[in-house]
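Cont'd.
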Amino acid sequence: MRQSRKLSPRNGGVKPKEMRIISDSSEMQTLANRIRETDLLIGFVPTMGYLHEGHGSLIRGARQQSDIVVLSIFVNPTQFGPAEDLDKYPRDMERDKEIAREAGTDYIFYPEARDIYTSEFQTYVNVEKITKSHCGVSRPTHFRGVATVCTKLFNIVLPHWAFFGQKDYQQCAVIRRMVKDLNMNLEIIVLPTVREADGLAMSSRNVYLTPEERKQATCLYESLQLAKNMVRAGRTDARTILMAMREHIKRKPLASIDYVSIADTDTLQELETIRTEAVALLAVYFGKTRLIDNEILRVM
Amino acid sequence: MRQSRKLSPRNGGVKPKEMRIISDSSEMQTLANRIRETDLLIGFVPTMGYLHEGHGSLIRGARQQSDIVVLSIFVNPTQFGPAEDLDKYPRDMERDKEIAREAGTDYIFYPEARDIYTSEFQTYVNVEKITKSHCGVSRPTHFRGVATVCTKLFNIVLPHWAFFGQKDYQQCAVIRRMVKDLNMNLEIIVLPTVREADGLAMSSRNVYLTPEERKQATCLYESLQLAKNMVRAGRTDARTILMAMREHIKRKPLASIDYVSIADTDTLQELETIRTEAVALLAVYFGKTRLIDNEILRVM
């Protein structure tokens, strides 16, 4: 891993005194090329906005090891299915700016959809096997949209590294696979999930939950802890653990399971037996709101 | 267009005195990153080897406006269909090195297939509409392979510009579309088709032709000239021109038409009437050998 360098006179001009917002993709790419001609390292945090403490932690992670921190805010239409929540996805640009500034952002890249997807747009990045399972079952075009927009954002922002939260585990696995497969010139860094006091993983979508759903939503975290403790206690057969997880969730009347899975940490292939480590992943609906979470399981 | 800069002391070390061959993709990318930290401009010519004067012209084009010229030689398996000529695609590395050196190459990137496509490989770049017509009809996975390998090579070589020959017109249109759609950080430069004395477009595949097929193969160029002259003489209805082109080719008993088309120069959508300009494209089989060629048609 490269070390960030000190600002020197020949780096002048690309590090803004105050946080700047750039909405034009050509302007962003030109700036990124100028930064790349200096010694400065670019850390990148791609988001869909409506920032929370999870994003804050990614920005601070980027800040710590980069000279220039770029945050993108773009609610990406191609990763939403036709029946999904694109139109009502929560937005609050003023609060986002506050959080971004406080966490140490230098540039917010805030493009319009018609800039990112022109009328002639027709090129998609498809990661194949790893996108078919888990969230890919109920959201068949989701990861194609994620892979495509990340490719575009990486090419516009030209980061040395990009930061993602472990909460979106399959997304992280897909992006890592894509970066390797297409020899992309950056490093993917995954930071731990940030949680509310009761364990619920922070997510922009938590705002959709009714107070009663919000209470019951802790069952995702609890069932993951259950799995973790069972593995710690010596259980290695996935079927038994999955059954216990499902039973725990089913006790919550408002919860409806999409999937609960124990899988290989890289390929996400379903496991029958946990040898050294695995990942437990789950997606649970509360009404129309779909929550996801995951936990690494390690055999002691 | 940026101007190439003079070599300065801080650029030292990345411009080799003699042409170098690099086969490892990580080594190539690390070198490209080092070059990118200098002022030097990288010109890139991706090829499948078995170089001819057409490639020579691309290398000289790159040489003229770049400080560092990288040529890749890689017979890309993902752009060949199952019944195509991957295994017998002609190779002659010693002659390729000679031609590359004389035309002014600094680095040949010459990777192995297992380096470019590892066993876990599963990510493809799909350009959609523009790949469905013309060569995409008889070669349905061809452009997916081309787009994917070009994405990989661009990410490894990190060129400021990449050079392609107009002979592969649809390929050029697909790559341009991909570069725009995915905001790739480089410029695509298309140079004119280089031809034999009798008009046949240079191609590594010409070596497959029997002497009699070789003689009759001039019908591609001739029918394109016929089209060009008809448009010059005021003809603008595509159907009449296409009929004349087909008739000319059908006079050659060894020729079998795959397609003859008059299309929009950007989108490759079939045209009925030529308004200001169009491209005439054709693919013709001689035995198992498939030849392609094209010509821009301009209304005077």
